[in-house]
């Protein structure tokens, strides 16, 4: 469910004007004209000057406004306003693709849901994501196998000691 993004505009520098920003205008983009980079207020810069000023790049979320794919279908779903605001802030510029991916995972059983108390306990144990969970389970399985191997080896030694007539074996 990829979103469609427009091609980059080669006339834009995708950098905000540092002079305008220092004067309180935080949204004045720079454009390229031949060998000069300038803003709409006439401030011009060389590439070296922009590096010296530490000019701020324009965020991708300001350039690529998220739009659904042409094959996507609109679906009204009631959402708690607080949850909606958190998701829009957390996944700014990629809400549609994030929710679309989640719904696709729910539909094809590739998603394991852990919430509430279980999620809290996992976080307390240092498990933050699926990779951590998989690593912890693999480690537990390896430890379990090592324990079984050790018990088998101890039982073999005990039978050898018993056969040799060692007292207490």
Keywords:
4-stranded antiparallel beta sheet; elongated; 3 domains; 169 residues; 4 strands; alpha+beta
Can you put this structure into words, describing what you see?
- By secondary structure, this protein is an alpha+beta fold.
- It has helices spanning 18-22, 47-53, 60-63, 81-90, 95-107, 116-124, 130-163; strands at residues 12-16, 29-33, 36-38, 44-45.
- The chain folds into three domains: 12-63, no CATH class; 67-111, no CATH class; 112-169.
- Strands 1-2-3-4 form a four-stranded antiparallel beta sheet.
- β2 (29-33) and β3 form a beta hairpin.
- The N and C termini lie far apart (66 Å).
- The mean pLDDT is 84.
Low-pLDDT runs of 5+ residues are: none
The largest β sheet comes out as: 4 strands, antiparallel
Strand runs, count: 4
The number of domains: 3
The share of residues in extended strands comes to 5-15%
Spatial arrangement of strands, main beta sheet: 1-2-3-4
Kindly report how far apart the N and C termini lie: 66 Å
Radius of gyration, taken over Cα atoms and rounded to an integer in Å: 30 Å
pLDDT averaged residue by residue: 84
The number of helices is 7
Helix content: 40-55%
Overall structural class, as computed from helix and strand content, comes to: alpha+beta
How does the overall form come out from the CA principal axes? elongated
| Secondary-structure element order, N to C | EHEEEHHHHHH
Describe the structure in brief:
A hairpin with a 2-residue loop joins β2 (29-33) and β3. This protein is 49% helix and 9% strand. It has helices at 18-22, 47-53, 60-63, 81-90, 95-107, 116-124, 130-163; strands spanning 12-16, 29-33, 36-38, 44-45.
